[in-house]
Amino acid sequence: MQELRYKTVGGAIVTIADDPQATRLAPIARAKCGGCRDFTHDYADEPDGGMRRLKKWASDHAAACRALPQSA
Questions:
Q1: Shortest CA distance to 65 belongs to which of 6, 15, 14, 9?
Q2: Beta bridge partners of 7
Q3: How far apart are CA 72 and CA 50, in angstroms?
Q4: Secondary structure string (H, E, C) spanning 13-69
Q5: I need a labelling partner for 49 at 20 to 30 A (CA). Which of 2, 18, 55, 67 fits?
Q6: pTM for the full model?
Q7: Residue 58, exposed/middle/buried by CB under 10 A (0-12, 13-18, 19+)?
């Protein structure tokens, strides 16, 4: 999966990417904020819109989060 990124109000980045614990049988994607470190995950291939839910969460979080970017 190609990473998706959303910039927060505070300048941090919310990234949607494959979850490191995903498997072939359970393709999980994760959305994580690089500022406040909040995150969520969902099954990316769910027919009822797992990826759509992740994109909505990331977009809503980016619009509201005022955390500054954290160093790695």
A1: 9
A2: 13
A3: 28
A4: EEEEEECCCCCCCCCEEEEEECCCCCEEEEECCCCCCHHHHHHHHHHHHHHHCCCCC
A5: 67
A6: 0.82
A7: buried
